[in-house]
Each structure stands twice: as structure tokens, then as C-alpha cells.
Amino acid sequence: MAENTDTAKLTIKGETYELPIHSPTAGPDVIDIRKLYGQANVFTYDPGFTSTSACDSTITFIDGGEGVLLHRGYPIDQLAGQSHYLEVCYLLLYGELPSAAELEKFERLVTNHTMIHEQMHNFFRGFRRDAHPMATMVGVVGAMSAFYHDSTDINDSHQREVASIRLIAKMPTIAAMAYKYSIGQPFVYPRNDLDYASNFLHMCFSVPAEEYHVNPVLARAMDRIFTLHADHEQNASTSTVRLASSSGANPFACIAAGIACLWGPAHGGANQACLEMLKEIGSVDRIPEFIARAKDKNDSYRLMGFGHRVYKNFDPRATVMKQSADEVLELLGVEDNPLLQVAMELEKQALADPYFADKKLFPNVDFYSGIILEAMGFPTSMFTPIFAMARTVGWISQWKEQLADPQLKIGRPRQLYLGETHRDYIDIEKR
Ligand code: SDX
Which residue positions in the chain have pLDDT lower than 70? Predict the structure, then answer.
């Protein structure tokens, strides 16, 4: 990090402490409080880590006020428009855009690792058919550590690399199998002649009874959705992966923890919740009723797909996602999709409302993704598994970066204790 001679001065009960300030290549300066507890016997307090940097990183940068998202310095709209998911995976993992030869080798490596151990098929059959695919993914991905023992040693750089490729390659296969199992159709094996997105669509939608041809426009839209979800700084699920990894847990356990965290409706589960909200609204004339509920202080209801911890401007991913939604719905001849009409009118009315404008609550990445995925034929229960698949490269890149950090130590936050102080046990007869 760029050294900064400035210091922050903190005075507590007449004693002044000087805290180092570190300057980033972009974004706010940080005050280094690592020695504060030892010097002043105080903790800092920041529920939800709204003002706390837990690490330094070179992978992704977000400027929430300007609606900027950079992966290794490259803007997300350029990557979504000119690159493709596996090239973005290479960029996130290794820090630079690949040469043609490097990309060809990386894509071949991923393609050749898309099958899962045949015995893992049995895992799926232990779930009820109506299990949420995210439950299946948490279970099956965590169980990968029981099958791939030769890539669990986090201190071996080769094993870290093998685990990274295995996870990126196998997540689409696992997600597709979770989907097929939930609809009672046979598993479809990956095909090495298809690109990453086409392979996923083929594994989800082909059936043994007839030929399935992947529509290249849908494959491109699928690939773009993967790219838009690839990484996003220290969001809740990435922070979960980092915290799990800080104890030395194996990569498959860490990614399973990330999947579990992503599932929540405040995070990756918002794309499913957003589409369910649009369906519940049903028609544009009911929008005011739902906006009123979202504004009501006494109602915990929130507009799914709106707001963001960091973006206080448009989420640049939502802008690209909306363009994709228009293309896919036009291709499928459903440009007058009632859900899209409701979504666009909801966006228009919410952004015209001072409550949302003042609180800077804009549509986020989840607002339009569900509309595309539903138009493609995915059930809402598959929206978050698709998010998890795409985010795996971000989790893995951050996991590798943390393991290479000489400052790495187990994550162990402190607390503001408000409970009982010492008191002696009371025998039950005397209570
Ligand atoms: C993702 O972190 C990431 O980068 C995540 C992500 C990624 O790529 O990893 O971008 C993916 O998780 C996107 C977010 C998806 N979630 C949703 O769409 C669910 C709906 N959004 C909210 O739950 C909320 O906006 C959060 C959780 C996303 C952010 O919450 P914050 O930053 O903790 O904000 P807050 O809860 O403190 O809200 C600030 C104010 C509150 O009002 P006041 O108490 O100040 O009066 O805004 C209100 C909130 O009530 N508010 C909303 C709202 N979101 C916030 N009011 C109505 N509808 C909403 N959606």
C-alpha cells in the first residue's frame, strides 16, 4: 500500500494516540487501528463493517458514489461488452488479460475438468426432489473435499491451483445437476465441444429424447450474466469465504460457506426474491401499494433488487443487465413481458420518489437478472445457484489472494459486551 506520512490523532481520556494512515491507489484512505487495543485498551465498533476495511486487495474496486466497478482496473461495462466469462476468470485469477495462447490453454484446462466424480451423483439422490438447489449446492460443494483429497492442502500452491480450476469448472455441472434432479430429469453430462455458457444451458435444458441446440444469443446473454456476477470486492459472501479460509479450512469448505451466505435474500437471494416480488405486484397499477409498504417505517418490507451497501448511484451491472434483458426478450418475442413492464414502471416510480432518491436506493444487479433468467426458462429457485456459479471465480480469487498475504491471521472480531457481569450459580431449589 502507498505509504502516507499523515497520521490520525485520537484522544481518549486526555491521552492522544497517533494512528497511521494508508493511502490506496483508488478510494478512501484507511486508518490503521491494529495497535489501538494494545495501546489504548479500546475496541472500535462497526456493526456490519460499514466503515471497516478487513484486508487490502488488488482484484476489484467499486466507487459507489460514481457507479464504477473495475476488475483489475478494467471497467465492468467494457468487460461485459468486449470480453467473455472465462477470460474475465483468467483476469481475476492472475491479474492480467491473457494472450491468445494463455487463454486457449486456460479454457482447455477448465473444459477438461467439468465432469464430477461419478460417485458424487449419489449425493443428489439423498435430497428430496423439492429441495432448494442452493441446499444441494452447499452440500455437494462441501462434499467435494471428500472426493478431491489431492487439492485440499492450502499450503501447496499446485493444489491451490488445481482446486481453483476444479471449482470454476465443476460449479455449472453441479448447478445443472441440482436443477435436473429437482425436475426429475436425468443428469446431462458436460460436453467439451461447447463453450462454458453453452455447456451450462445444454446441461440444464437438453433431454435424451431429442437434439438440443443452444441459441447463441441466449448463450451470449448467459455468459454476460456470469461476467456481471464474477466478483464484487468484500461483499458478505466473499468476506465469509475469507473468514472461513483464515482458519485454514480447505477450499471446498470455504466455497460452500460462501454459497450458504449468498443464499440470503439481502444478498444473492435477492434475484429470486425480486422476481417473486414482481410476480406479487402483478400489474403496474399495484406498484404504488408496494412502494408505500417499502417506505413505511413500521413495515419491514423492502423492494427487492433496490439499494446497495456500496452503490449510492446506479449499479453499473444493472445498466448492462437491462440492455441484455431487452435483447433476450426481443429475441424470444416477449418484449411485452408483463414482468418487464412492471419492473420498468417500478424503477421509474421508485426513482421519482424522494424516499428512494434521498436514500440513494437504485436498482442493483439483481433487479433485471431474474427477468432474463425467467425468460430463458429457469425457475426462480435456480437464480441464486447461477449467481453462486458465477461468483465462484471471485471467491476463489480472493481466497488465493488472502492465502498469499503475509499479514494473514485468523479473523476474530471483538464485541461490545452488554450482558450480565459476574454472578454465582444458584441451585434450582433456591431459584
Ligand atoms: C447483492 O455487497 C455487495 O456487493 C452485494 C452484491 C454482490 O455483487 O456481491 O452487489 C450483490 O447482494 C446486491 C443487493 C441485493 N439485495 C437486495 O436487493 C435486497 C434489498 N436491498 C436491501 O435489503 C438493502 O438495500 C441492502 C441489504 C442491499 C443494503 O442495505 P444497507 O446498506 O445495510 O442499507 P440499510 O439497510 O442501512 O438501509 C438504509 C436505509 C434504511 O432506511 P432508514 O433506516 O435509514 O430509514 O434505506 C432503506 C432502509 O430501510 N432501504 C430500503 C431498501 N434498502 C434500504 N428501503 C426500501 N427498499 C429497499 N430495498
Answer: 1-3
| Distance from Cα 342 to the centre of ligand 1, integer Å | 21
Distance 365 CA to ligand 1 centre (A): 12
Query: Alpha carbon of 30 to those of 42, 51, 53: distances in Å?
Result: 18, 9, 8
Contact (Cβ atoms closer than 8 angstroms) between residue 364 and residue 305: yes
pLDDT at site 115: 97
Catalytic residue flag (residue 132): no
- Specify the length of the chain in residues: 431
| Residue burial 30-63, b: 16+ Cβ < 10 Å; e: rest | bbebeebeeebeeeeeeeeeeeeeebebebbbbb
Note the pLDDT of residue 5. Answer: 79
**Quick check: 29 and 5 in contact, CB under 8 A?**
no
Q: Which residues contact 219 (CB under 8 A, 6 or more apart)?
A: 195, 197, 198, 201
* Start-to-end CA span in the chain (Å): 58
Q: Which three cell numbers stand for residue 214?
A: 443452444
58: CB partners within 8 A, 6+ apart: 72, 95, 401
